[in-house]
Amino acid sequence: MIDPIFIKHWSSRVSQFVYNYQIHFDNPMYLLWPDGVRHDDVLLFLSDAPPYVKKVCTTIKALYSKMTHVICIARGLRRLTENIRSHIPRVDELVAKGQQVFLKTPSRVLLFKTEALPPAPVLTC
Asked: φ, ψ for residue 30 (rounded to 5)?
């Protein structure tokens, strides 16, 4: 059984997150429509579709009635392949062997050796 205090705390955190996300989603819209956001003109919401973004998107759809949530195709394919690899170990072995073969190809090794390196280490803070 789940503790009711946990549920109350979690729901308040999610609602706060939805509120903040809604503010951050609306603010850029004022660049397009300075006089006020035209909610019916927002047609697409592109994301990498983690579970919390899906929940936020369903909440935001109440304001943006014509909006469609689309996940980034590259991330979607990656999630799909990871799911397949987790369920079928032989596919995982095949992918790992393919990565090993393509990693050590002579053209890649030559490209790495001829690639100009930076003159000094690049420090990032």
From this structure: -70, -20
